[in-house]
Amino acid sequence: MTTVREPKQDRSRATRLRLLEATIDCLAESGWSATTVADVAERAGVSRGAAQHHFPVREDLITAALEFMFDSRMTTAMDAAKSAGASAARKTETVISELVEYFTGPMFKAALQVWTAAAADPALKERIVPLEAKFGRTAHRLTIDALGVDDSDPATHQLVQATLDLARGLGLADVLTDDSARRKKIVRRWAATLDTALKPKP
Amino acid sequence: MTTVREPKQDRSRATRLRLLEATIDCLAESGWSATTVADVAERAGVSRGAAQHHFPVREDLITAALEFMFDSRMTTAMDAAKSAGASAARKTETVISELVEYFTGPMFKAALQVWTAAAADPALKERIVPLEAKFGRTAHRLTIDALGVDDSDPATHQLVQATLDLARGLGLADVLTDDSARRKKIVRRWAATLDTALKPKP
Fold first, then answer.
1. Which of residues 15-54 of B touch A (CB under 8 A)?
2. Min CA distance, B173 vs chain A (Å)?
3. According to the model, what pLDDT value does residue A100 have?
4. pLDDT value, residue B52
5. Which tens digits make up the pLDDT trace of B169-194?
6. Measured between CA atoms, how close is A57 to chain B, in angstroms?
7. Structural domains counted in chain B
């Protein structure tokens, strides 16, 4: 089946995507209170009216941005780890590096602004909690898949969970200062420790 | 040498302490933007004038609160771990549990509000960065001491750093929901893994 190209719909989709990307950058760089629909529209080069047509309420824009960008960036990170790790001897280190790369990028910094605002805002919290649960499940599944380990083993499951918690902690340590030199050593050490712990006992 | 008791100075010190404690609670529960000197004074039951006498500027109050409460609570946590762990077989698990307890308490939730605000506020960031470095060093030193391990060994140093990053990540996972059930399993698993990793090779 062929579909007729619809330029108007394409334009609308492109505008939406520009708004979602600008929301993440705006949150990561300017913080929660400086991220309104008007601020994001300006950053994206979209008229305020068009932005409000797509996202009448600020919370809609922010949750849509988190959801879309999380899926796209986390999948990209783990795909990169898988294609790099396939031939590499140090697969675990490659996967953890990509994971930590994600958690120190704009997506995590943006999410941190929203999570922190939600801690003191019950209505926002209600929207964010299911999103957090979904992100947690997806990140776990993609990491298990990239590492190629068996999640039905409780020790493996818990160590992969711990690795995600570590990545989140390393993300937080990078919010105010460039923590990359210290982080590199931690990732290498954690990867070696995880490799030993995940190795089937003889 | 005996000192004459100075009731007025005692009262002033008590007021200051009440303000510092109220600042942490206010940040943790109501967030950054709802934590002004006036809000904290009201919560502490101190007149606005008296609060402003102690802390003319909001940033002074907040950094003083973080500094004082961090020292007091982190030391308490690690002292608890040491006295509990002295006779316990599972010293590592006790120390990590206390550490994680600290990172899921009001002190971490308060600090998170300040760190996140500082990410988008260069003047605040300048005040917070040295504090973050100091907290990191102190937490590391107290953890090394409580575990009774040798920090001059690079692997040990990095694994204790990773443990602190993990604790920070677990703290973040507890901001919006009660994550204690999952956390307990992670702590136990990491303690066992860390114990094996720190054991001198035969």
1. 29-34
2. 8
3. 95
4. 95
5. 999 999 999 999 999 999 999 999 99
6. 21
7. 1
Q: Which residues of A27-62 are buried (b: 16+ CB within 10 A; e: fewer)?
A: bbbbbbeebebebbbebbebeeeebeebbeebbebb
User: Would you say residue A178 lies in a domain?
Assistant: yes
Whether residue A27 lies inside any domain: the answer is no
pLDDT of residue A42: 97
- Min distance A162 CA to chain B CA atoms (Å): 6
CB A35, CB A62: distance < 8 Å: yes
What is the per-residue pLDDT for B5?
Answer: 62
Task: Supply B104's token pair.
Answer: 């899921």
Contact with chain A for residue B99, Cβ under 8 A: no
Secondary-structure percent of chain B, ordered helix, strand, coil, rounded to 5: 80, 0, 20
CATH number at residue B175: 1.10.357
Mean pLDDT of B87-94: 80
Burial call B125-136: b when 16+ CB within 10 Å, e when fewer? bebbeebbeebb
Q: Is B16 a member of any domain?
A: no
Listing DSSP states for B122-134 in one string gives HHHHHHHHHHHHH
What are the tens digits of pLDDT across the range B145-156?
Answer: 999 999 999 999
Range(s) of the domain holding residue B189:
59-198
pLDDT in tens, B18-68: 999 999 999 999 999 999 999 999 999 999 999 999 999 999 999 999 999
B109 interfaces chain A, CB cutoff of 8 Å: yes
Mutate to test the interface with A, among B113, B164, B176, B183 (most CBs of A within 10 A): B176
Comparing alpha-carbon positions, the chain A residue that sits nearest to B118 is A176
pLDDT at B201: 61
Contact A119 B176 (CB under 8 A): yes
Looking at per-residue pLDDT, the higher value among A103 and A11 belongs to A103
Q: At what angle do helices A91-103 and A180-198 cross, to 10 degrees?
A: 140
Note whether residue A13 is domain-resident.
Answer: no
B103 to chain A, closest Cα gap in Å:
11
Please give the pLDDT value at position B2.
52
Mutate to test the interface with B, among A25, A182, A189 (most CBs of B within 10 A): A189
| A162 contacts in chain B (CB < 8 Å) | 166, 186, 189-190, 193
